[in-house]
Design brief:
By secondary structure, the chain is mainly alpha-helical. The chain has helices spanning about 5-20, 20-35, 35-55, 60-65, 70-80, 85-95, 100-110, 110-125, 125-140, 140-155, 195-200, 210-220; strands at about 170-175, 205. It contains twelve helices and two strands; from the N terminus they run ααααααααααβαβα. Strands 1-2 form a two-stranded antiparallel sheet.
């Protein structure tokens, strides 16, 4: 087959795929469901083959990445901007399906990640500030919903009602003993639950009036 014939064939296949895209996707999906065992075995073999190939060509891949670093960065940046919602949904789905694995991995790499984040934030303070500001402006609604979800988890953990009067409205986090307080829970409520659990254990839930009364009594006792 000559080069021109190959080109014609490629164009024909491309056109045919575009015209029959839904039909082809449906057929492929059906075929995979009917041949799950074969497909599973095939994927395992392919993974092993790819892994072996990468190990044998480690130096080549390293050199290729170095030569095309900027090109790859631009490509991924463009792809992320064009597929923002798709990536977010994929990540959310993956996290839900792999909760145990993610939790285990976080625990194993907790110290390492904290050290890396600290170093990165110090080196990229201005850049990080700009990114956070931009992201916050673009995702106001998402941030509000995320914060409310996280706060609901913390409220549920502490009983979900005021320990004095039993109301479930306008609840606030109160440190039982002021001396052991490290930080305000409300300022870090959107953090990972495992990271703020230790501080939450020092707290109780009070409604706004009960919280005000307790604080007033503490200030009176402090200065008398």
């Amino acid at each position: 087959m000559t080069y021109s014939q190959k080109e014609k064939r490629r164009e024909y296949d491309k056109k045919r795929y575009q015209l029959n895209k839904e039909k082809i996707l449906e057929y492929n999906k059906k075929w995979r469901e009917e041949n799950k065992e074969y497909y599973k075995g095939y994927n395992e073999k392919r993974k092993e083959r790819d892994k072996k190939y990468r190990e044998l060509n480690k130096e080549y891949y390293k050199e290729y990445r170095e030569l095309n670093k900027e090109k790859q960065r631009e490509y991924y940046k463009k792809y992320k901007e064009e597929n923002k919602e798709k990536i977010r949904e994929q990540n959310k789905k993956w996290r839900e399906e792999n909760k145990e694995y993610s939790k285990k991995r976080r625990e194993e790499n907790k110290e390492k990640k904290m050290e890396y984040d600290k170093k990165y934030n110090e080196l990229n303070r201005e850049k990080k500030r700009e990114q956070n500001k931009k992201w916050g402006e673009e995702n106001k609604e998402h941030r509000r919903e995320y914060r409310q979800e996280k706060k609901a988890i913390c409220l549920e953990y502490l009983g979900g009602k005021c320990v004095k009067c039993g109301t479930t409205h306008n609840l606030q986090f109160d440190h039982i003993k002021r001396e052991g307080k490290k930080y305000e829970i409300s300022s870090r409520v959107s953090n990972n639950f495992d990271n703020i659990k230790e501080e939450l254990d020092k707290c109780q839930l009070l409604c706004a009036p009960c919280h005000l009364d307790k604080t007033a009594k503490e200030w009176v006792d402090m200065y008398n």
